[in-house]
Amino acid sequence: MVGGFTRSLSSFTYRTFFKKESTYFTAIVATGVGFSMVFNTAFDRYWDKKTAGTKWEDIKDRYAQE
């Protein structure tokens, strides 16, 4: 049962994404852009949390004068 599902899933994936070169290229680019956006957002949130209180926007009120 599982083997049939896996076979049909791989067949569907091949027919949908990998059969034509243009679709394959589009899938690769879209996956790369999506991964980049998710990774950058996650890392920015991590970095902002880790360095809270030490960035310029956090301390500029103490040093900036009008």
From TrEMBL:
InterPro entries in the record, alphabetically?
A: QCR9, QCR9_sf
Keyword Manganese recorded: no
Q: What is its main location?
A: mitochondrion
Source superkingdom: Eukaryota
Q: Which Gene3D superfamilies match?
A: Cytochrome b-c1 complex subunit 9
Which family does the record claim for this protein? Belongs to the UQCR10/QCR9 family.
Q: What is this protein called?
A: Complex III subunit 9
**Species name:** Coemansia thaxteri
